[in-house]
Amino acid sequence: MVDHSSHAFNRGLLEFLQASPTPFHAAENIAAQLTLAGFQPLVEGERWSLKPGGKYWVMRNGSSVIGFIYGREPMETDGIRMVGAHTDSPCLKVKPQPDLSSQGYAQLGVEVYGGALLAPWFDRDLSMAGRVSYRDGEGRIRSGLVDFKLPVAVVPSLAIHLDREANRQRSINPQKELPPLLLSEIDGVDQPSFRERLKAQLLAEQPSLTVDEVLDFEISLYDTQPPALIGLAQDFLASARLDNLLSCYVGLQSLLQADDRHSTLLVCNDHEEVGSASACGAKGPMLQQFLERLVPETETRMRVLDASLMISADNAHGVHPNFADRHDDNHGPRLNRGPVIKVNANQRYATTSEGSALFRDLAERADVPVQTFVSRTDMECGSTIGPITSAEVGVKTLDVGVPTFAMHSIRELAGRDDAAYLHQILNEFYRYPHPPGQS
Question: Which of 128, 278, 339, 355 has its CA 20 to 30 A from that of 374?
Answer without folding.
Answer: 278
